[in-house]
Write a structure and sequence with these properties.
27% strand; Dna Ligase, domain 1; D-amino Acid Aminotransferase, Chain A, domain 1; 3 domains
């Protein structure tokens, strides 16, 4: 097979591992920086050009699209889809997962466990939103934040009001969520491929920090999931339409609650914590499922 990996940096751990795993299984691989692509979007012969050459003969594409380039990155991926190339995650599903509010609405509609979440536009609704999520302490999240950036824990009502008012002044979109105190600064990253959780790790925040992201100094170790946690992670990925996803859940008093569904989950933390060849599992899934024009949306939407 000939596989394209959409990544802006071929030296990133996740990109390198995907390349290694694909080559180890005898595939041809090319890393493509989406921002350096240009496209012919004519209906008869859609094409992608990269570094002056037309990209031809690809069987599958693995999108590793950063949040800051989601719009153009998904446009390039959509062009691959129009050309009949199989994407492990489709452009529509990635766009859906990148919109935190839309993601939560979709998960809520299907009855998945979620933290109580509020969203408003007017400053006059600040107190109502705070009360909606059960008051302080509460978590305020910028809609565009990643890796723990733009996430604030407001421990008092006054602090919450100040942060919300500041975000309003910046005209920033954000959500307000209840703080799951019993999680004690830990969350679980479930790596889902297809209909299975292939690896899982518990991430614990460093002392004095409530965000458990490894980029924030959190620690990770392998964790045994309950049947309900596995089912929740798989269902969350399915609802988003993702074949590969990092589903972050918290252990609450009312069962597992989904915090986020990541369409480009990193491999370094999960592979080192679990000692599993997650990259190889991803390539194996592509081998079994990649067929021409197998994209559900065919580049639409």
């Amino acid at each position: 097979m000939k596989i394209a990996i959409l990544s802006r940096n071929s030296n990133l751990y996740s990109t390198r591992r995907m390349v290694e795993a694909a080559k180890l299984r005898g595939h041809e691989v090319q890393v493509v920086d989406a921002l350096k692509c240009y496209m012919d979007i004519t209906s008869d012969h859609p094409a992608i050009f990269y570094r002056g050459e037309k990209l031809l003969g690809f069987d599958a594409v693995i999108p590793r699209i950063g949040v800051s380039v989601t719009r153009f990155g998904t446009a390039v991926l959509r062009q691959f889809e129009m050309m009949g190339v199989y994407p492990i995650n489709e452009s529509v599903a990635i766009s859906r997962s990148r919109d935190k509010l839309r993601s939560l609405q979709l998960l809520s509609r299907k009855g998945l466990g979620l933290p109580v979440t509020g969203f408003a536009h007017s400053v006059s609704d600040t107190q109502v939103v705070i009360d909606l999520v059960g008051g302080a302490p509460l978590v305020i999240k910028l809609m565009e934040g990643t890796q723990g950036r733009g996430v604030v824990l407001a421990e008092t009502k006054k602090a919450a009001e100040s942060v919300i008012d500041a975000f309003h002044e910046l005209d920033a979109n954000f959500i307000v969520q209840e703080f799951i105190q019993e999680a004690a600064g830990s969350d679980i990253r479930c790596f889902v491929v297809g209909e299975k959780v292939v690896a899982a790790m518990m991430r614990t925040a460093r002392e004095g920090e409530f965000r458990s992201n490894l980029h924030r100094g959190g620690e990770a170790h392998v964790v045994k999931l309950s049947k309900e946690e596995r089912a929740t992670a798989v269902q969350a990925a399915r609802i988003m339409g993702l074949n590969m996803a990092g589903v972050d859940i918290l252990r609450s008093n009312r069962g597992p609650v989904v915090m986020e569904v990541n369409s480009s989950p990193g491999l370094e933390g999960i592979e080192k914590a679990t000692d599993k060849d997650v990259a190889g599992i991803v390539i194996e899934f592509i081998e079994k499922n990649a067929k021409p024009n197998k994209t559900k949306t065919k580049g639409n939407g």
